[in-house]
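JOB MANIFEST
job_type = single_chain_structure
chain_count = 1
residues = 139
[input]
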Amino acid sequence: MGLRWIHENPPLWDAGKARVIGAAPEGVFNLGAPAAGAVLPGDWWRVEDDAGLVGFGQMDHSWGDAEVLLAVDPARQKTGAGTFILDRLEEEAHARGINYLYNVVPDGHPDKEGLTRWLQRRGFTASKEGRLLRRAVRL
């Protein structure tokens, strides 16, 4: 029973995203209020296992860097799914020749400090602009 990384093409706002991302506390994800079936910006991947939906990874890239978003079903957190998603996002970035991954943990996030520490343990460092950066391309 392994995790599956499934590229969504095109990425659409669906019931799974509404449940995992849409139900997150206000200020965690800044996607607005997409209508059912709306096409979403960037590249999206769905993560599933034999029991169903686990979470999502999203990457929006420009100018050689990529902002990444990770969302894990609350019932599936602390199982390694977030690390799985982050590792796959790094592989995707590497394949595209992207220099840096970055994430901005919003001030309104209910566990801003915990998420920031989690990202830092995975190689992200704080930038002057408030982003957390991690070099994607290994030299």
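[summary]
The chain is about 20% helix and 30% strand.
The chain has a mean pLDDT of 86.
exit_status = 0
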